[in-house]
Amino acid sequence: MNASKILQQLMSQASGSKGNSGGMDVKGVIDGLSRHLGGNSSQGTRQSSGSSGFDVKSLLGGGALGMLVGSKRGRSMGGKALKYGAIAGVGVLAWKAWQSSQEKKGAATQSSSEGERVEVLSGEVQERRSLELLQAMIMAARADGHIDEQEQALITDQIDALGADEEMHRWVEQQLKAPLDAQALAREADSPQAAREMYLISVAVIDGQNPMERAWLDQLASALNLTPEMAAELERQAQQAG
Fold first, then answer.
1. DSSP 3-state assignment of 222?
2. pLDDT tens digits, residue range 72-93?
3. Whole-angstrom distance, CA of residue 143 vs CA of residue 213
4. CA distances from 151 to 115, 194, 196, 204 (A)
5. CA gap 85, 68 in Å, rounded
6. pLDDT tens-digit profile of 89-108?
7. 176 within 8 A of 147, measured Cβ to Cβ
8. Is 104 exposed, middle or buried (0-12, 13-18, 19+ CB in 10 A)?
9. Quick count: other Cβ atoms within 10 Å of Cβ 23?
């Protein structure tokens, strides 16, 4: 499975998209991709992308990220752009949130038991963390219940176009259909730093004003054993990153 490669490309796309005040026109992304591929089924789109060899990033301007966190109703989060900066710097921002909380307590700001940032991991540990964050993103994107089967197929195709191997392809399809379970997701966290990153990346793709999405964030914070103060600080970091 090549989860770390997929996550790195999504983070890179987020970095390139930061500062786009108009957000991403997800409806346009879907329409354009549908026309380009000439089909809606998961198998059909996947074969089309493989045979055409098109560059999803250049064609759709970061479409894989938009598809992962969006839906055809046009997810611009009530007119607010997706928090691209928070996605691009998820590890650094989660660490800053922890440091800020420690400073407020007058405690030390270094602790090896907290875990490393995703940006500095490598090997199997990096792969595991990448899976955790991708799973958190997908669950967050589904929290409002508006991703239908056609959108699931398009998301899968976009991930394939980023170079997903067969195992990764099957994993994404499973995550798009799995029950939303904050406790199960939280059990995947391999460290306190991972838990903070999972929450922050969820905040980055969720509209906190949507009751269903807000409820998901609250469930996830509880499942990850984040204090209300830490959850609030992570949300503040995500908002500031934009």
1. helix
2. 333 443 333 468 788 888 999 9
3. 5
4. 35, 28, 28, 20
5. 16
6. 899 999 999 998 888 877 66
7. yes
8. exposed
9. 18
